[in-house]
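2.7 Reproducibility. Because tokenized structures are sensitive to small changes in the input, we list the exact sequence used for DNA internalization-related competence protein ComEC/Rec2, including any N-terminal residues retained from the expression construct. No trimming or masking was applied before prediction.
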Amino acid sequence: MQHLNRTCACKYELDPSNLLFLPALVTIFGTYCGLAATHRLWYIVVLIIIIMRIVRTHNISILLLSLALLGIVILRCMSWQRLNQPLCPTSKVIKVLPDAWQNNGQQVKFIGTTMDHQRVSGVIYLKKCQQRWYYQRLTQPCWLVTNNDYYRITAATNEAEFDYARYLWQQHHIAYAISLKKPPLLYHCPVSSLNDRIHCWRKYFWLYLQKLPFQCRYHAQSLLLGSNDGAGYSYRRDLSKLGVIHLFSLSGLHFFILLHTLLLLGNYCGITKECLEWCFLIILPCYAIIAGGNLSISRAVLLAWLTIITHKIHWSCSRLSLWSMVIIINLLWQPYTLFTLGGCLSYLLSLVIIVTHGQSIWRQHVIIYLMSTPLIWYFNFKILTLSLLVNVIFAPVFNYLLLPLVYITGLLGPCLPWLAIGSEYFLTKIVIIIKYLASLPWLVIIAGRLSLLELLLLLTITFYWLLCYLKHRHRILSVLLCYLAVISMHRYPWEGRVVFFDIGQGDAILLEGKQHQYNVLIDTGGKLRFNHQQHSSRAEQVIVNYLHSRGITHLDAVIVSYQDADHIGDLPVILRQCHVREVVFAKGLLRNQSFVKKIKPFIAKTRLHPVLAGDTLHFGQQTLQVLAPTHPGLGTNHDSLVIYAVIAQQRWLFTGDLDRAGELQLLQRYPQLQIDYLKVGHHGSRTSSAPIFIKKIKPRLALILAGRHNRYGHPHTTTLMLLKRNKIPYLNTAQVGMITYHYSNFCPAFWQTYRK
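Resulting structure tokens (single pass, no recycling of outputs):
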């Protein structure tokens, strides 16, 4: 590592041929300063430090280049934000390229461009399998004609929820979508450009791969075309848990292996390297399009293209300078490249490979693992514990066995059935091994959400230790202590919360104790929003992500207030992805076959706890009292489980979908009932919120969950007028997003809403 220290300190810092790296850093942090919605001050501080470092080089050319790039980046970001605001398309004619159709179960998705040059995504709901396959087998561009209206893709409205709308706009310039309940009119349009022709070739090759068995087809599509369908969702999740998904997805690594193989084959066939390089200059951009515009492939293609160009013009350029030119060009073309985990990892890991060039494979893997860990933690709230070992084991097998096998099978398998059958057997065994490894305990540590300052701190500490660890090996203890301290802060926060999720149509409430002394979830939601474009359930997108961002590894209980799908539809998702100690529900609900079907697969690992009015639930130091129902029922609105709690010296009432008759009975049994915060029954509909009940308990604040999505439309006018008449303020998750009540021993309690 002393050699690495000298390499990093001398070769990559003082060598004038590498000084282009400093303007690249200016471009990176200038882009963050111009486009980041938060933490802009920190980016400005880092940018100032980099400019001061450039001044110390006493290189006027580099300083002028850096200032010029900074000015261009600022102007580019200003124009991007001013001119690239989402505009609603007006044309009802959409051009869809042949490879833009995706079959997804009961629906067909597509991405197209309208006649007024706006990119949109769409979904067609079809009943017949033959109809779905018709769209999949289109081999030329089409005009899609419809009378349906476009709608704005919904932004994230919960903390830690993946903002799909922002991702689509930043990476693909898509802000609007269209939903079609029946097949639209399609007209074939002529192939009018080279881009259209390349997309047609891509579709022909995709159809060629459809002749392969499932595993061969899936791996060939991923590694040759960069396409993934919904069928491989669980497989990709297992690969992510192991930290090897980059091996099984089309990336720059595969591209350079393929490029090196072509050079060797050309040399073996007597084709000169110069001739091959001229061919690559033409073929490489086409390959980037065929690969679907994949970020890693685009980066690798641009790097190879620049390498050939600099060699042709006899310009001596180091690998680090080439990397710097690639990222500068990429950021000027697509400023949001480094706003995703894939973009950050692609460039960071390629930089680490350049810096550690000449080191042993094992040392390279260690450095890559250590440098990527804070980034994965920042974006996914997790630390992958075994990814280093799995990468070391899988990388040789993948590079020298699996990758060549997939390439050969993808090209020849449809013509040689025996080859496809043999490859299918081998790949099936690989999938079984990966699934087994992904099920091992302690594979993932839920570490909570890192702040930007913590990310920069951990990256700096990790990089400093990598440079100096041979000389000061004992400093590894201080590095580990820093990681453990940050994990502890997120796993055991001093702040408690009551969280009302914006789950679409339905209820989902989390009682989160200080230092996570208890974590109780009341209902899980269960119905997707109609204009949301993702496959996974809302519980997985919202609740599970939030739990991971807070470092929550288990739930003490899931309380089921009611049997309808909008309250417990995603209960199996929560039980499958979280460790739940017990499920609490009203007595009599076990006679409901729908509820029994949901919990049956999890009875062996989760305790069932039926309750009735008068029972008390204890979770750590928190006590919850059951006020209703008084008799076993079947889980109707009248039988909703009503929970009373005193949290942070405030009185809370969670009523589920309790109807007006149930509210009046509640007043008869508890005439002195006084409430500070009320979860309004049945989403504020007219079947709940009896005037006498509201007037009697008179809460300080009413909370309405999913008032925009219930079957009565908006919260019923009667309910809103009743709250206003009694001067009771209210918050509706459908209007303000996730609602959170924060409390601790160190600051006054406060409410926070989340709407992007």
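The longest helix spans residues 387-412.
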